[in-house]
Design goal:
It is a single chain. This protein is mainly beta. It folds into two domains: 97 residues, Sandwich (Immunoglobulin-like), CATH 2.60.40.1220; 215 residues, no CATH class. The protein is built from three helices and 31 strands. The strands form five sheets. It has a seven-stranded parallel beta sheet, with no helix packed on it. A six-stranded parallel barrel has the order 10-13-17-12-31-29. Strands 2-9-8-4-5 form a five-stranded mixed beta sheet, covered by helices on one side. A hairpin with a 2-residue loop joins strand 15 and strand 16. The longest helix is centred in the first third of the chain and has 25 residues.
């Protein structure tokens, strides 16, 4: 019997040592299992006025495998359209060099995919996405000087008979002294600071912005959605690329591929939910980019009463349908009105922020519909307490709703946070 026990020990002991050795090898601390991250990008996320000849760079937390740095893993796009270019890699920085100058006044989206790997083969945990906006390209054939000694271009040369352009005069009765200069913002202010409408000849005919998969969302954000209960949302709520954990204040009840809430007449979607939700959200965010760029790129560039109306302040204005452009911020410190019929369209191109003061009421007159009103906001939109606002708000960064504010439209923030506080948001009827 003892001889038999010794035999078992003789067999078992080497097996135990071998097992211990294997276990030690599996947990070898020298094996690199740390995933790389994107530490810095240039231009930075949400950067504005970026030079059109700018190279785009991404710096990683560690050295990467050069063969994984390609135009497949490092992309620059306008909406869903890829920008042609080449990718190079040095040290810990990858550089995307566009094949041609970037377009002016355009939102670009950069993406580093999970195909990017470090030297040990570890990939990024999730794709890194950011966006930036190019500045205005002021150099054109007409503006350029043709002689090295020339000190002024065509933009600074006035017409021999007058220094005012016909497009800058909103009233046929207005007269201009030959030696006087006319400021475009002043004319716009004089035309629109009363309750009178612009003339029929000035009304523009526009097609609505197509929202695609984004259309069923009342709230769609990139980074986070916060809510102070109780809000009343009619339409869907979505977040991407962030996960459901970045949605707070709705008391969600989980289901397969979505969640529900007593505060939401619709569904709540997040990028980490079951299929097919992630793909749907990717499409929705892509369609939002297309819609944002469409609104930002509409032409002809507004002039006269459609350029910087109210010198940037909508207070007291009564706006006919058309394309409006704000070269800086836009605000509304008191009530204002949009007047038109049910088929008329309004598009507002706002370069930076939109700020609506507490208690401001936006009125729709003549049959105007919220579904045909679109606000393209270059950075962030802020609505004060008890505000009443209409239209689809597409902000590149964030949207903040004050306590008790109502939006008959959509709050769509591409990269940032949507902050809600006892708000009512309703997707407009089609």
């Amino acid at each position: 019997m003892r001889k038999y026990l010794r035999y078992l020990m003789f067999i078992a002991l080497p097996l135990a040592v071998l097992a211990a050795g294997c276990k030690e090898k599996d947990t070898d601390p020298t094996v690199d299992t740390t995933r790389p991250t994107v530490a810095l990008v240039s231009p930075a996320d949400l950067a504005a006025d970026v030079s059109i000849d700018k190279e785009i760079t991404a710096t990683f937390s560690e050295a990467m495998a050069p063969l994984t740095m390609t135009t497949t893993t490092f992309t620059i796009k306008i909406g869903t359209t890829p920008v042609a270019g080449a990718v190079t890699y040095t040290g810990s920085t990858a550089t995307f060099t566009p094949a041609a100058d970037l377009m002016a006044d355009t939102v670009y989206t950069g993406t580093i995919t999970t195909g990017a790997k470090d030297l040990a083969g570890n990939a990024l945990k999730t794709a890194f996405v950011w966006s930036f906006t190019t500045g205005t390209d002021t150099i054109t054939d007409e503006d350029s000087t043709t002689d090295g000694d020339t000190t002024a271009d065509n933009d600074t040369t006035a017409d021999e008979d007058t220094t005012a352009d016909e497009d800058m005069i909103g009233d046929e009765d207005a007269t201009v002294d030959e030696d006087s200069t006319v400021d475009e913002d002043t004319i716009a202010d004089e035309d629109l600071t009363t309750d009178e409408l612009m003339t029929d000849e000035e009304v523009m005919t526009l097609e609505p912005v197509v929202l695609g998969e984004t259309s069923h969302f009342a709230v769609l954000a990139g980074y986070a959605i916060t809510n102070v209960p109780d809000s009343a949302i009619t339409g869907d709520v979505g977040i991407s690329p962030a996960a459901e954990s970045w949605i707070s204040g709705f008391a969600q009840t989980a289901a397969t591929g979505y969640a529900t809430s007593p505060q939401v007449d619709g569904f709540i979607y997040a990028s980490d939910m079951a299929d097919p939700t992630p793909a749907m959200l990717t499409t929705a965010k892509g369609d939002l980019t297309i819609a944002y760029n469409d609104a930002a790129g509409r032409t002809p560039i507004p002039t006269g009463t459609f350029l910087d109306p109210g010198v940037g302040n909508l207070a007291g204005l009564n706006l006919v349908p058309g394309l409006y452009k704000f070269t800086g911020e836009a605000m509304a410190t008191t009530d204002f009105t949009l007047t038109g019929d049910e088929n008329d369209v309004w598009i507002f191109q706002i370069a930076t922020t939109l700020t609506v003061s507490n208690g401001v009421q936006m009125t729709l007159a003549g049959g105007a519909k919220a579904k045909n009103i679109f606000w393209k906001v270059g950075t962030q939109a802020t609505f004060g307490t008890t505000v009443l606002f209409h239209g689809t708000v597409m902000a590149d960064a964030s949207i903040t709703m004050g306590t008790g504010a109502t939006l008959n439209g959509r709050a769509l923030a591409f990269t940032g946070t949507i902050a809600l506080d006892k708000n009512i948001i309703t997707v407009p009827a089609p």
